[in-house]
Structure formats: structure tokens, C-alpha cells
Amino acid sequence: MFGFGTEQAIKRQGPRGSFDPWLLVALVGLVSVGLVMVTSSSIAVADTSHMGAFYYLKKDLLFLTLGVLAAGLAMRTELKLLEKNAFPLLALAFVLLLAVFVPHFGMRINGARRWLNLGITSFQPVEAVKLILVVYMASYLVRRRDDIETTFLGLIKPIAVAGILVLLLLAQPDFGSATLVISVTIAMVWLGGAKPIYLCVMGLPLMPLLYIAATGESYRVKRLTSFMNPWEHPFTDGFQLTQSLMAIGRGEWTGVGLGSSVLKLSYLPEAHTDFIFAVIGEELGLVGVILVMGLFALAVGRGLVMGLKGVEVGQRFAGYVAFGISLMLAMQAIVSVGVNLGALPTKGLTLPLISYGGSSMALTCAMAGVLLRATYEINRALDARESVRRRPDAPLAAQAGETASLPVGEMA
After folding, report:
1. 201 inside domain
2. How many whole angstroms separate alpha carbon 370 and alpha carbon 131?
3. pLDDT digits over 319-350, tens only?
4. Which residues contact 69 (CB under 8 A, 6 or more apart)?
5. Which of 2, 137, 239, 279 is 20 to 30 A from residue 379's alpha carbon, by CA?
6. How many Cα atoms sit within 13 Å of 68 on the Cβ side?
7. d(Cα 103, Cα 114) in Å, to the nearest integer?
8. Which domain holds residue 44?
């Protein structure tokens, strides 16, 4: 796509790297579906607000362009540069999360301080923090491999880092992202070789804290109770979920037709962001739902498979990065879909690469670029190993050639 493979292979005169084609197909497919569904789900909202029918599409295309540029840069950048700067990036993550509390710089929207005012646009720091967390965790798992696999103390630092990030997110408040951060951290540590018994012992003290965080605010309690029976209060606490369920139910097998959704016409709140999956279900039916879920399954599955290959071939950092990004995409998609289906309490999480969102779209594209770069480096290592297998005498031949080229005096 970007022409990287041939150029880098010729320049290095070494093993050829390649981006995983199925992963690329899945990511492009998700973005394509997202553009279509953002257009369909946002027309009514934009037109009602007198901003023009395609206002949100134009903004989505702008941030997608920025995201593609960021992805292209990530695909050209060696992962060792990210690994080397894992600590400065982690410090940047803390600064970004603290900056939302700075007066006039941090923005409060709908009672939450999750955005930074950049003048021409706003920025949600947690989207960058997700990628930074994966990079830091991958770096830690490489550096402290033995400690993670054999000792309980090896778990304290990564869990503590995630805990501080979670506290900063809860202070905003952003319970959905906080849950995502701690879940991905625990999953990556487990994939890094930590014993399950250590994770259980580490997780037990967190249970009361999560309970307090989940029930500490009245609106969170309402979310936890309303999703169990949204029809009890269909016009107040359960309004979003009842509208979402009605939209998905109307879609049946093949949907009511692209652009023909009724619930998006000022009935379903956040139809182009948090509840875009409900519009997909209504307009495209079960067929569209299966298509979207299949694309996510393909992207996540390929990412996990390539991560496993990376660890096996010795590209541990690339492998853990592939694990982390795949898990981040999978868990966010599961939560978003679960909320739309009424299986999980309402969270402010978008559907990756599909929902409208400036920071989300741009940074998720950048994250996808890092994932593709990881597959490139893993495939390059696999090709190098395969080359050695095909030519087992290559090292001896190279050594003989070097010896033959030396002057007689030096050979002696």
C-alpha cells in the first residue's frame, strides 16, 4: 500500500518484511463501514442543528486523514524507537491526564473533564494514553521477563502504573476507559507469563476499590441498575438503551435499508458516536452486525496470531505490542457492542474505527499503524529465520568469504 517492503528490503539487503494483508483488509474494511455509517447516522443530527447534512462526515474525513498520516508515519518507524522512549512516553501520559484539570485548558463537557482545548479543536488525552500504556507494558515485559514469570514483586510496578492512570481517569470521571486500562494491563501481564495465582492475589484488594468507584456516584448506580431492566424507566434512566434495543430489533435479518433508520431521527441519543452499532443493526440488520463483528474478529485474531509468532521468533517487544493493541481494540469493541445490546451498563466508549470522534479516530488509526509495523518486523524476522533454514551453510560460507578476502599477513 505504502511501498515500504521492497524499498526497505533493497536498502538493507536483508530479510524482507511485509505487513499482514488480512489485518490490513480488516482495518480498511472497518474504516470504510465507519464512514458510511457516520454519514447515515449523523445527517439528521447535523441538519437539525443547521450545520449542513454532511458536517460530521467532513469532520470525520479530516480526522481520518490525520489518522492515516499518523498511521503511515508509525508504519515507517522502527519499534525500537518506541521501546527506547517508553519512559518519556509514560511521563507524557501522566502530564496529559493531569492537564485536563488545568483551568481554561481542560474542558468540562457534560460534567466530565476529559478534553483539552487546543484552540481550533479539542483533544481527548485518554486516546493517546491507550497506545502509550501498551508501549510501556510491552517494554516492561521485555525488560523484566524473569521477574514477571517467577516473582510476585514483578507484578507490582505495572499494576501500580495502571492503578495511577485509573485514578486519574476516575477523577475526570471516565469509568469506561479506566476499566479498559486495568483490563488490558492484566491481560498483557498474563500473556507475558505471570502466574494466574499472583494475578488473583493482586486483584483481590482491587475488588472493593472497583465497587466503590462503580457506586461512588449516583449516575453510575443508575447505569448499573437501569441496564438490567431499562423498560422500567423507558423515558428517563433507560431511555438510551430502550431506543437502542428498538433500533436493533427493527433491523431483523437484512435491515430496513441504508439511510432508512427511524430511531436516529432525534430518538436515539449519540447515534453517530456511542450508539452507532444500534444504527448498523437497524439499517443493515443481522447481516451488517455479522459483517462488523467479523471484521473486528479478523483484525484482532490476526493481531494475536502475529503477536504469538513475534514472541516465538524472538521479536518480543513487537509481539507484546501486537498483543496489547489487539486486546485494546477487542475490549473496547466488546464494551461498545455490549452497551448497545444491553449486556453491559452504559459507558462512554466509541466503536473503534467506526464511530465518529476526532481524537478517537486519529489515535486509533495511529494505533493501527503501530500494529501493522509490528507485523512488518515480525514477518521480517520470520523471513530471516526461514532464510537460515533454507541455507544452513550460509554463516560458514560468509565466514570463509571474509577469510579469503584478508591479506596474507592478516590471515597468518
Report:
1. yes
2. 9
3. 999 999 999 999 999 999 999 998 888 777 88
4. none
5. 137
6. 13
7. 13
8. 21-385
